[in-house]
Design brief:
The chain has ten helices and nine strands. By secondary structure, it is an alpha+beta fold. It has a single domain, classed as Beta-lactamase (3-Layer(aba) Sandwich), CATH 3.40.710. Strand 6 and strand 7 form a beta hairpin. The chain is globular.
Length: 272
Amino acid sequence: MKFIYKPFPFLTCCVLLVASCSVNKAKTDDSLKKYFDENKVDGCFTMLNNADGEITVYNMKYDTMRFSPASTFKIVNSLIGLQTGRITDEKMIIKWDGVKRWNEEWNRDMDMAEAFKVSNVAWYQEVARRIGKDTMQQWIDSIGYGNKDISGPIDSFWLSNTLKISPDEQLGLLKKLYFDQLPFRKSAQQILRDVMLQENNTAYKLSYKTGWGFAGDGNSIGWVAGWIEENRHVYFFVTFVKAPDNKTDIKTVRMNITKSILKQYGFFEGRR
């Protein structure tokens, strides 16, 4: 069945900002510093307990500081693609262009679900080109994403330190996505939540998107942005890491830190 795109009415009548989670209500937890020190990186961790609204932050300095979203932008790129029909559903395939890239997993035809899981940059660059600059800007403005700056090439602004977002703003976006509060069709938000699910068992469900890139000062940065569900309670979290040594294995470090913190907080055993 052919998908017909109809402009979403919110674009013409209102702006829905991705509200950040108020750091004024946050409590700090410096005990988390050890996980960053062990991995020889700087950064922060922030978590929102949706049940009582409590926010926990390690290193407030970085929590409200904006950085390139890197591949966490695939969250919004997916939503805009689904909303505009540039992505029909999670099974839509974009054919490989034949260009061999450093990640062998990307060098083949791929559908959206797999492209999201393996963080296929080329796949999502093609989606961005199909969306186009004007439409992309409209949707970025409509949700108030970070600094809303997508100047430069349409297929790299989220990688080049043009577009920037803070961990606190990422947290606000995640909460709105989880509760269908973004100005996209509920079906689009559901598809994205489904592809974000990474671990699913009787004890917990863990959903997230990772990101890896470089800050304006040349330091490597990494993200893990998502939520964990246990016993029908949801907790939103964002891990941000920054490493002065570009030889740091950001991919491993960001997940090690995230899972160590979640384990310290009693997750993964279904007893939260």
